[in-house]
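Problem: given the chain below (439 residues), write out its structure.
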Amino acid sequence: MTRTRTTFSFKIDDPAAFKEAALHFYAQETYFMFLESNHGGTGYDTYSSLLAVGCIDSLSVNYHSAFNKLEAFHQEYQDWVFGYLGYDLKNELEDLSSDNPDTIAFPDLSFFVPEIILEITDEQVFLHSYHATEEAAHLIIKQIKTYQFSKKHTVNTPAQLIARDHKEEYLDKAQNFLDHIKRGDIYEANFCTEFYAQHVTLDSLQAFQELNVISEPPFAVYARMDHHHVMSASPERYLKKTGTQLISQPIKGTAKRSLDFIEDENLKEQLFNDPKERSENVMIVDLVRNDMSRVAQKGSVQVQELFGIYSFKQVHQMISTITAKTLPELSFIEVIKATFPMGSMTGAPKISAMKIIENNESFKRGLYSGAIGYIKPDGDFDFNVVIRSILYNAKSQDVSFSVGSAITAAAHPEKEYEECLLKAKAMIEVLSHQGVSFD
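Solution.
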């Protein structure tokens, strides 16, 4: 069904206040997604902020024929769709399986067609709708601008955050990965571990806002899709498609920050020059280049930046940027299938790494290390990598987040464990404010 949204534009004086009011104004919407760039920082941004509200139709499926169903869903509406791709869609793409415990039971793939889309810039808000008249659009914006809200205080039931792997278990498993590397089975693998809590009453909007303030990442997402809630402070882009141009920005390499300027600069320099971090990064760059070459015009795959150091509130990251031109006859779904899941979250060689990951990790990744974002009517899209993210099943009241690090021949299990705890710090802090303690 081909339909065209009508777009209305309005001036705003304080975009931050407007966005916060909108988040609270639509707090009861069952289907809702807010994508926030926090003014970017890694380049190639199209939108500062996007907000998708309401649901005309939705698609939630597990991995059997999920990509075909998403393509058909998009073709039916030829409209914006917002949603996510779970990591375990790998099982549809390769001879793989997912047999580990699933804490929060999200569908493998979930998308929805929103009723209203708000595109927010520093000076304007654009409202895209099928149904709203100009008068109705004016009313919506006025209601948001004047919406009076107070930060509610949820009565939290105390809960305990549980580490799926205790430290010694983590160290033993990290050594298993090193043994595989020494045998030549793989060169690198992203080994992840989960933290979870049960019987949690979580104010997911408050949790997202706190997490976003702590981290200010370029690919932040807050989503409610039925009872599945996502609070993502991701600094990483999986893949963006604009016309025939593809952009991927894998992260490999993490360093802590310091309040002391000189020490902080030294930490950045150490990260840039660290041979292990550079080795991790270049391996994944090669993997992403190989994935993109499967759908790219000959000779078009280029590394635009190698070992770029980007600083965020919590950490410094080593980020590389790879671009390519797609073959024009390919659909957006073929591009995604050729490159998913993100190489930075698997390892090299990709399929072997995913098999070893499944055999050693103690949880089903689900949405973690998948991707969340949007697909436009013309098939252009932009997706982050779901890392530094809290996932919440409001129906079962289970909450989960996961962290990981890259294991290479130069890895030391103790240091990899410390890196995981560094990445977990912000999420542990946010959950502690909602009664979820971690000893």
